Amino acid sequence: MALLRVDQAVAAIAGSQVLRRVSVDIAAGETLALIGRNGAGKTSLLRVIMGALPLVEGKIEFSGRDITSMPAHERVGLGIGYAPEERRLIGKFTVQENILLPAWAGRLGAAEIQERLELIYFVAPELKDLSPRFGGLLSGGQQKMVALGRALMAGKHMVLLDEPFQGLAPALAQAYAGMLRALRDARPDLAILVTESNPQLLQSMADRMIVLERGEVQPGAVETTTVQRL
Ligand SMILES: Nc1ncnc2c1ncn2[C@@H]1O[C@H](COP(=O)(O)OP(=O)(O)OP(=O)(O)O)[C@@H](O)[C@H]1O
Ligand SMILES: [Mg+2]
């Protein structure tokens, strides 16, 4: 059974359709790459999943439950973490406080918070060193790492990463890819949905790729075999 099922989703912004009957399934443990050019609808699809953009038509199911009309704030408890494109760190909060925000919003227990922090610092050890620094004093690349940490705090079952590689220097992009691989090894049941405009970056990492163009899924999802995984 799919962990997340988006079925024939239609969404509009300012009267024009940005998603046109988009259907996407993702299974537990699967890494799905969502590829598309600027304006293709990648961010819109993630926002629809998070409940930030309403559906005009279609349906969203999570763990077999219809969440189409569940308000965004109630989805916090579903265990879906989201690292938006523009990161949205709070400058006056430390790195660790920024990572903990979803834990406070979702009222996670102390043991669960501790467990997630350990995973986050295992996957991204640099974050441990940065933890007392203020969010506003980090480089763009460092902020992307914090955004990943924050997504993992909320994302017990799934994380949505919106163009995490965009704007990263090649060395940082490699480091980030290494973190995602470490994450997959440490949490083999976690579903990862990651968007990117360049398919090459994710080819070696994703189990499957789908291409969005002008709000539509292009036919023929690309299966990338586990053998190709690095
Ligand atoms: N705030 C907005 N107001 C009006 N139109 C918008 C707004 N946000 C997005 N759109 C439009 O919705 C469509 C889909 O945008 P979306 O942000 O989902 O694309 P994307 O694939 O994430 O692009 P990018 O790679 O640039 O992040 C585009 O045509 C875009 O112009
Ligand atoms: Mg986008």
From TrEMBL:
One biological process GO term for this chain? Answer: L-amino acid transport
Q: Which residues form the ABC transporter domain?
A: 4-230
For this protein, the record's Gene3D superfamilies field holds: P-loop containing nucleotide triphosphate hydrolases (3.40.50.300)
Q: Which keywords has UniProt assigned to this entry?
A: Amino-acid transport, ATP-binding, Cell membrane, Membrane, Nucleotide-binding, Transport
Q: Mind telling me which InterPro entries this protein's record contains?
A: AAA+_ATPase (IPR003593), ABC_transporter-like_ATP-bd (IPR003439), ABC_transporter-like_CS (IPR017871), BCAA_Transport_ATP-bd_LivF (IPR052156), P-loop_NTPase (IPR027417)
Q: Name one GO molecular function term.
A: branched-chain amino acid transmembrane transporter activity
Q: Report the Pfam families cross-referenced here.
A: ABC_tran
Q: What's this protein's family per the entry?
A: Belongs to the ABC transporter superfamily.
Record's protein name: ATP-binding cassette domain-containing protein
UniProt source species: Parapusillimonas granuli
Q: What is the lineage of its organism?
A: Bacteria, Pseudomonadati, Pseudomonadota, Betaproteobacteria, Burkholderiales
